[in-house]
């Protein structure tokens, strides 16, 4: 019998956690997109990136990361994404506040990573504190704090490949700018003529709001919080893992004018997401009153999840 994980309504029956923890994907992003020496240039999209550079990264990636992307690229289909929307986007699982959500995530992503002993809330504050130090609006600071709260999907036993990972459109041809694009050969949508053209089931310039994205923490936290935050923040939350677009220039043919305007905020956020985490912890106890007030400025005491 094959050792391949089998897909059923609940997901793969084995092999759905190839990463040691969710931090491993974030560490791998830093290997793929190392911080430039001159952050005033090439901080965002690098259209001059050579194909050979991308292949070198793939050759050096950990086996666990390769296995993670193999599963992700095999199972992220139109049917799966629609099933996840039906499963989660009714937002009828529970009600609690952003503060409680941060505490929940704290218990979920803990000290299992041997390379870091910082709690998850400290990582979140490292991102938000740098945004705050650079004088950005309060909604931007808050977005930095909560951008990974969608990882709470793990609380409902979702597999790693359906929580983290680079996101991309489904329902159209998979771009070769997606990391480990060769693994899409095992995705059944590749053999569906409806999904195999450049635009697939979409019209050119239709706008990303009309495009099904691969399922993960980005889409979930966007849906949970979109009624409370400005559109700039919504774009950051929904597309911060859409690396094929905001780092490698793919899928511009699906974007409309609004996408092109608001993606500048996704680009602005990306360096904070990638390059602010370090071993130096913020003083969470000292900062917590500020963040409680900030959360209360935008969110009610409880929201639907």
Order of helices and strands: EEHHHHEHHHHHHHHE
Look at the structure and give the mean pLDDT: 84
Gap from first CA to last CA: 39 Å
- Tally of individual helices: 12
How many domains in all? 1
Oligomer: single chain
Strand content: under 5%
Which structural class should the secondary elements be placed in?
mainly alpha
Radius of gyration: 19 Å
**Tell me about the biggest sheet?**
2 strands, antiparallel
Strand line-up in the sheet with most strands: 1-2
- Low-confidence segments, given as residue ranges, are 1-14, 39-56, 109-116
Number of strands: 4
Q: What overall geometry do the principal axes of the alpha carbons give?
A: globular
Into which percent range does the helicity of residues fall?
Answer: 40-55%
What does this structure look like?
This protein has helices spanning 23-32, 51-60, 63-75, 78-88, 98-108, 120-133, 138-146, 217-225, 231-239, 243-246, 257-275, 284-298; strands at residues 7-8, 11-12, 95-96, 303-304. With 305 residues, it is an all-alpha fold. It has one domain (19-34, 44-304). Helix 6 packs antiparallel against helix 7 (138-146) and helix 8 (217-225) packs antiparallel against helix 9 (231-239). The radius of gyration is 19 Å and the shape is globular.
